[in-house]
Amino acid sequence: MSNSAAVPIRQIVIVGGGAAGWMTAAALSSLLPAGSVRISLIESEAIGTIGVGEATIPDIINFNALLGISETEFLKATNGTFKLGIKFVNWGRVGEDYFHPFGPHGADMNAIDFHQFWLRHQVTNPSSDIEEFSLNAAAAKDGRFALPDPNPRSVLSRLRYAYHFDATAYAGFLRNYAEHRGVRRVEGIVTEVRQDAETGDISEIVLENGSTIAGDLFFDCTGFRGLLIDKTLDVPFTDWSHWLPCDTAQAVACDRGSEILPYTISTAKSAGWQWRIPTQHRTGNGHIYSSSLLSDDEAIDSLLEDLDGPAIGEPRKIRFRTGHRAQPWNKNCVSIGLSAGFLEPLESTSLFLIQEGISKFIALYPTADMPDVVRDEYNRQLVKKFEQVRDFIILHYKATERDDSEFWNYTRTMDIPDSLDNRIELFREAGRVFRYEDELFAKPNWVAVLLGQNIVPRSIDPIVGAIDPASIAHSLQSMRSAMNNAVTQMKSHRNFLESYAWATEKF
Ligand code: FAD
Predict the structure, then answer these.
(1) With 80 as the cut, is the pLDDT of residue 170 above it?
(2) Contact 268, 320 (CB under 8 A)
(3) What is the pLDDT of residues 354-408, one digit of tens each?
């Protein structure tokens, strides 16, 4: 095999220093061989960052671990808390709630999914709730937390968690990390992006003070502005707002009570939903809504009515468009973060999509000529990730029985992607659910939302239907007792945090 013609990339320029920019800078500075490439990051304090984004999914643990970041240092630096899942209130019907836990319900038996046994059990025990068999849900309900046990025989090994944290502090933490590994930070506003007249590749950026920064490869991490991928390269945007009609958020933090919940709360409202995210120092709140159906004033009033404590400052309005860049990587520009696309934060997936962009880029790390085949593969894989997450989010809107507003009447009756329609029908038939093509959400995630929003299978899996119901009840009872015992051994979430990673400075 000859690699003699391959010219390596020597200069990488990252434009933008929000979570996307600094996650990219931190990962590249850690994973690329030292001294092999010069990395510069340009950001502007005058422009600032989006400054929201406090909830995550368990994959963030892998990202931090890859970078060798200590969990306690990270939690202290970002006022972080643990997250066991999301409590969804009023989504299926007003007055109902359910918990979407990270981690499984019960344990599969004989290679058959646990939920099939539970569905069989429920036929004769209609008051049984699948959440009774989720370790995460049980711990969340009691406000408790423990780290998973590395011993796979322990019930506690089944616990999965993520974090809530201050996203701005996370970017600052990663900035420190990346600068220590040689990333050069440049403060300034980019006023011009120059392209090669022949190829159209980006050749250099020009700052307000007239200085220029040239590169072989550029990352567009400029957020919704999309300074390179949109304003310069004009890559089309695939718009999904007909499936996800919310387009505006009002965000405000508030004081929190003494308790710190180990989960996010998402409460469905008349034209959208409201998040509640507990960090160590405050509660983050936001109301996401469709601006054609709710005025800003109505959205703010509704947001402020539902806070844990006094608001800290005024609500901040953020407009967004749901969808993604048709080619997140175009020419010599890779867009990462909000410039590449956005799906509303209902399942806290944005930082995950940033991670995916970074890890796929590393897996396909190109030579300076950037072959089309590499770019095409990156785009194919990343767009697929966006589509898979999109389907999971749409499910929450489609699988509702609410008919109390124009918003829910629209989402309940709208056409949905065939991929999702097929999934729902398969589940409705006999509770079958599959994880396709390395997708993010696993079977228990789909099951939690499908059942939580009252999609009940019409029939029982015939294999499980042939098993003695008493033996199923016995197995389920043992699982539940083992789980409840494990939960009673856990500390309260707050006590755990205080002993493990309490931020000394509360700001
Ligand atoms: P930004 O934070 O906007 O950063 C853009 C950067 O580009 C800034 O540094 C800015 O200074 C720089 N820049 C722009 N133009 C120029 C210029 N001309 N010159 C120099 N610099 C420039 N994600 C989650 O994972 N969980 C959540 O709970 C969550 N909640 C969210 C709620 C809302 C309402 C929204 C809108 C997003 C949420 N997100 C969430 C997404 C998350 O906030 C973003 O994915 C993440 O912060 C990354 O943003 P970014 O770095 O792409 O953009």
Answers:
(1) yes
(2) no
(3) 999 999 999 999 999 999 999 999 999 999 999 999 999 999 999 999 999 999 9
Decide if 254 contacts 228 (C-beta within 8 A). Answer: no
Which residue minimizes the CA distance to atom 46 of ligand 1?
Answer: 19
pLDDT of 1 strictly over 60 = no
Taking residue 413's Cβ as centre, other Cβ atoms within 10 Å add up to 9
Q: Is residue 108 part of a domain?
A: no
- Which 8-state DSSP code applies to residue 206? E
Is residue 317 predicted with pLDDT exceeding 70?
yes
CB 300 within 8 A of CB 311: no
Query: How far is ligand 1, taken at its centre, from the CA of residue 20, in Å?
Result: 7
pLDDT at 507 (0 to 100) = 43
- pLDDT at res. 258: 83
Give me 241's structure tokens: 């707002």
CB atoms within 10 A of CB 403: 10
Instruction: Tell me, in angstroms, the distance from the centre of ligand 1 to residue 225's CA.
Output: 10
Report if residue 459 sits inside a domain.
Answer: no
Nearest partner of 362 among 43, 1, 13, 30, judged by Cα: 30
Domain that holds residue 25: 11-81+165-239+322-387
Q: Quick check: 316 pLDDT over 70?
A: yes
Q: What does the pLDDT look like over 424-471, one tens digit per residue?
A: 999 999 999 999 988 999 999 999 999 999 999 999 999 999 999 999
Expressed in angstroms and rounded, the spacing between residue 326 Cα and the centre of ligand 1 is 19
Query: Which ligand 1 atom lies nearest to the CA of residue 351?
Result: 25
Question: Is 231 assigned a catalytic role?
Answer: no
Q: Are 130 and 451 in contact (CB under 8 A)?
A: yes
Residue 53 banded pLDDT, cuts 50, 70, 90: confident
Q: Is 231 within the bounds of a domain?
A: yes
Mean pLDDT, the chain, rounded, equals 96
Residue corresponding to tokens 């499908």: 450
Q: Which atom of ligand 1 is nearest to the CA of 190?
A: 19
Please state the domain count of the chain: 1
**210: CATH:** 3.50.50.60
Q: How far apart are the C-alpha atoms of 433 and 446, rounded to whole Å?
A: 8
Residue of 125, 126, 27 lying closest to 473 (CA atoms): 125
Residue to probe by mutation, ligand 1, list 60, 163, 283, 350, most atoms within 8 Å of CB: 350
Residue 369: inside a domain: yes
> What does the alpha-carbon distance between residue 320 and residue 490 come to, in Å, rounded to a whole number?
40
Q: Which residue lies with its CA nearest to atom 14 of ligand 1?
A: 222
Q: Using CA atoms in the order 297, 299, 305, 311, what is the torsion angle rounded to 10 degrees?
A: -80
